[in-house]
């Protein structure tokens, strides 16, 4: 009976540590290489100029875009360009302290 409890506890600890490693990412070196590769692909594919900005409290996609751009196109264009520049990021849920690529719009002369 005692052996079953010990094995159950060990199994639960192993599951918890595996879950913790998978969700927090215990291999930061691998993330850096992957992030750099994605950034290079974004620079090559991006037709819209962008600026990398760290999100501050109160910042939204539109507020940051308005701050760094001379003009702002329709919000659907801003959302589409943001999604191209930041794959797998929800533009409605920006995280404070994270760095994102925001599209920069200027008037064509």
From TrEMBL:
<keyword id="KW-0732">Signal</keyword>
<protein>
    <recommendedName>
        <fullName>LysM domain-containing protein</fullName>
    </recommendedName>
</protein>
<feature type="signal peptide">
    <location>
        <begin position="1"/>
        <end position="20"/>
    </location>
</feature>
């Amino acid at each position: 009976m005692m052996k079953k409890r010990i094995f159950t506890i060990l199994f639960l600890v192993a599951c918890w540590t595996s879950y913790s490693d998978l969700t927090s990412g215990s291999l930061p070196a691998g993330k850096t290489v992957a992030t750099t590769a994605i950034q290079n692909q974004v620079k090559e594919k991006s037709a819209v100029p962008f600026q990398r900005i760290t999100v501050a409290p109160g910042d939204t996609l539109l507020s940051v875009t308005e701050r760094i751009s001379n003009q702002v196109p329709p919000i659907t264009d801003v959302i589409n360009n943001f999604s191209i520049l930041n794959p797998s990021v929800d533009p409605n849920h920006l995280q404070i302290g994270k760095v994102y690529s925001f599209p920069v719009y200027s008037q064509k002369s």
